[in-house]
Amino acid sequence: NPVTVPRHLLSISDLTPAELTSLVLKASRHKSAVKTAWSAGEIPKALSGTLGGRTVAMMFSKRSTRTRVSTEAAVALMGGHPMFLGKDDIQLGVNESLLDTSRVISSMTSCMVARVGPHSDVVGLAEHSSVPVINALSDDFHPLQIIADFLTIHETFPERVPKADSLGLEGLKVAWIGDSNNVLFDLATACIKLGVDISIASPAGYGIPSVMKDVILSGRAGAARPGTLAETTVPEEAIKNADILVTDTWVSMGQEAEAKKKLAAFAGYQITNDLAQRGGAKADWKFMHCLPRHPEEVADEVFYSPRSLVFPEAENRLWAAVAALEGFVVNKGKLL
Ligand code: CP
Ligand code: NVA
Questions:
Q1: Most exposed: 184, 188, 213, 322, by fewest CB within 10 Å?
Q2: Residues 223 and 260 in one domain
Q3: 131 and 164 share a domain?
Q4: Is residue 61 scored above 60 in pLDDT?
Q5: What is the distance between the alpha carbons of residues 299 and 326, in angstroms, rounded to a whole number?
Q6: Do 191 and 239 fall into the same domain?
Q7: In the chain, beta strands by DSSP E
Q8: ipTM exceeding the 0.95 mark
């Protein structure tokens, strides 16, 4: 039998603007179909059985609430079996190499959803896997989060009509106030691809590394109207005219030893109503955060306000997982 090379989802860079648009719109359609059925007391039919009893291995070397729950729930909805493998459950990293682990697990399952430290770990898993690998967060990227984030933005601006290769969000402005991290790198790539302008404020020394900037800006290729990217160390500058203010923890998993230093460097970066007003955000600005949230990066007055999209954003992780599993596992990477 000819060996078919599986298609993987390791970062938003793996998707064309049309494919990213399609994943978001499919997530949206599944969300409304399933929730309509559930509220009518019916069993949603379209998705059930699409995984046909296939097993999805979930290899998580770090903690997770949203990614774990959304992936397990999505696999259950689709009639598959989610197999959670925490770092103390398998031989990987202690008694067995990444290569051997990848060959063995992929020989018995239909997908590996992996949360790792170094991005090279998920790349290595993919290299040796006979099934699709989906990145569930690496030190560099978080594609499932960004599919959910764009579903949330799509829902928040219903007057914006999707097109074939974009969600119709061109010209919206996102302001990221905080650390340059995995979530930002994929968010910025998606913004560039979908024509959303992104302005980033991080303290000096915590900006986007230049190799990563090249990755993000390579999203311009193939975008009909690429979004623009601007960087500053002044939060107010980034916020000017922003439609959506976004942040994430200042101390990502694995950076705990740097916490004290980072918290000091990020003083003044907390998103508050006063900061948004001083910066001149649009009158009806919204707030997003991938969660888990720590109080230092955003004040309660914003986080728990009507502007905050954080809980719908978290729920949308489920529908993003459904769309990604459908696209990469059921449809074997054919996303259009
Ligand atoms: N946003 C996110 O990925 O959350 P978890 O770390 O809880 O999965
Ligand atoms: N930047 C955070 C995201 C968690 C979902 C981290 O890597 O810990």
A1: 213
A2: yes
A3: no
A4: yes
A5: 37
A6: yes
A7: 55-60, 81-86, 111-115, 133-135, 173-177, 197-201, 229-232, 244-247, 286-289
A8: yes
Same-domain pairing of 75 and 192: no
To test ligand 2's pocket by mutation, which of 145, 176, 249, 256 has the most ligand atoms within 8 angstroms of CB?
249
Atom of ligand 2 nearest to the CA of 253: 8
Tokens at 22, concatenated: 């399609």
Q: Is residue 219 part of a domain?
A: yes
291 lines ligand 1 (CB under 6 A): yes
User: Quick one: 25 and 156 in the same domain?
Assistant: no
How far does residue 30's CA lie from ligand 1's centre (Å)? 21
Would you state the pLDDT for residue 3? 63
Q: What is the pLDDT of residue 262?
A: 98
- Exposure string of 191-217, with b = 16+ CB inside 10 Å and e = fewer, is bbbbbbbbbbbbbeebbbeeebbebbe
Ligand with an atom nearest the CA of residue 143 = 1
Question: Does residue 332 belong to any structural domain of this protein?
Answer: no
The answer, yes or no, to whether any atom of ligand 1 lies below 6 A from the CB of 25, is no
According to DSSP, residue 130 is labeled: S
Number of domains in the chain: 2
CATH code of the domain containing 227: 3.40.50.1370
Express each pLDDT in 81-135 by its tens digit. 999 999 999 999 899 999 999 999 999 999 999 999 999 999 999 999 999 999 9
Residue nearest to atom 6 of ligand 1 (CA): 64
In a domain, 54, yes or no: yes
Q: Is the pLDDT of residue 1 over 80?
A: no
**Which one from 290, 314, 318, 325 is the annotated catalytic residue?**
290
Does the active-site annotation cover 191?
Answer: no
- pLDDT of 22 > 80? The answer is yes
Identify the domain containing residue 112 by its residue range: 12-141+317-326
pLDDT of 4 reads 78
Å from CA of 255 to ligand 2 middle: 10
